[in-house]
Write a structure and sequence with these properties.
By secondary structure, the protein is α/β, with parallel strands linked by helices. It folds into 2 domains: 15-118 and 191-304, Rossmann fold (3-Layer(aba) Sandwich); 127-181. The protein has 13 helices and 6 strands. A 6-stranded parallel sheet has the order 3-2-4-1-5-6, with helices on both faces. Helix 1 (26-37) packs across helix 13 (292-304), helix 5 packs parallel to helix 6 (161-174) and helix 11 (240-247) packs antiparallel against helix 12 (253-278). The radius of gyration is 20 Å and the shape is globular.
Length: 308
């Protein structure tokens, strides 16, 4: 296949986005698009950032194409949207300085939103508040969140205690609703073209099931068994807790696989809702294409015309 150049025929921007739910086929299509566009991939995945979990996080093993922010951090390091941006922005600038295209490819919507339209300044950690949170039960924190910002519970994963505490911390320190603190500049974000990859529901779910089973065939149990200390963010990797529970003898292998499959389907649903609500990227249903080449040909006009 010939490469597409940034010309009047292909009005490429220096940064384009390839987003979508887990298992939809982002990595495969992004690699092919990067080859065709003479670009480089920058991962936008909170868990593929980490070294040491290549099977569990489905890291791409392409050897002939530059890929950034994949297997970059130690499993003991914390990461959030701000740190991700601090790593990604210099890489984008360096790629652009060489006349190449940066393809932001991944499914961590909050990281992408932070990168495309910087968040309002967030308060730093408050030791007194965090001590109060640590002494409270999960139910007490939920009640407090409902009292100070009733709408916030629909904006975060309230089952994730760390995110629940951080949301409360932001609201209490800024004295503003979470939605107001997190508001973004849509006009700025809309200047970056991108594609939202989807599939027919049953097709996506079959791919998720196949992917989870393949992880176990590839040795994900040994990978997780060999892990040492983990940061809070690394420990949130999808499927990790279930596998650790199995390794402790608390759940059968069959139940572990099925639990991860169901959790991954729920995660994919949340990702799709996020991208539809937060961005107006045109959708590309990969179930409609019979080959990678056909999907690539379908994707190129959406990027080359500068669509958003």
């Amino acid at each position: 296949m010939s490469r597409v150049k940034n010309s009047a025929v292909c009005n490429l921007q220096p940064v384009v986005c390839i987003v979508g739910p887990t298992s939809v086929g982002k990595s495969t299509l992004s690699i092919e698009l990067a080859r065709r566009l003479d670009g480089e991939i920058i991962g936008v995945d909170a868990f593929q950032l980490y070294r040491g979990l290549p099977i569990l996080t489905a890291q791409s093993n392409s050897q002939d194409l530059p890929q950034h922010l994949i297997a970059t951090l130690s499993l003991t390091e914390e990461c959030d949207a701000m740190r991700y941006c601090s790593m990604a922005l210099p890489i984008i600038d360096e790629i652009s300085s060489r006349g190449k295209i940066s393809l932001l490819a991944g499914g961590t919507g909050f990281y992408l939103r932070a990168l495309l339209s910087p968040l309002d300044p967030l308060p730093t950690a408050n030791a007194d508040l965090r001590a109060q949170f640590a002494a409270a039960s999960h139910e007490e924190l939920l009640t407090q969140l409902e009292q100070v910002d009733p709408a916030a519970s629909s904006q975060i994963d309230t089952n994730n205690r760390r995110r629940l505490e951080r949301a409360l911390e932001i609201i209490l320190l800024t004295e503003k609703p979470l939605a107001e603190v997190w508001k973004k500049n849509r006009e700025e974000a809309s200047r970056v073209p991108g594609i939202f990859l989807t599939r027919d529901r049953e097709d996506l779910y079959q791919r998720i099931e196949a992917h989870v089973r393949l992880m176990f065939d590839q040795g994900v149990l040994d990978e997780v068994a060999a892990l040492g200390p983990l940061s809070h963010t690394a420990a949130m990797t999808l499927g990790l807790r279930e596998i650790q529970a199995h390794l402790r003898g608390e759940i059968t292998l069959a139940d572990t696989i099925q639990t991860i499959i169901q959790a991954t389907k729920r995660y994919a649903k949340r990702q799709m809702t996020w991208f539809r609500n937060q961005h107006d990227f045109p959708e590309l249903n990969l179930s409609r294409f019979s080959s990678l080449e056909a999907a690539t040909e379908g994707a190129l006009p959406l990027l080359c015309n500068g669509s958003s």
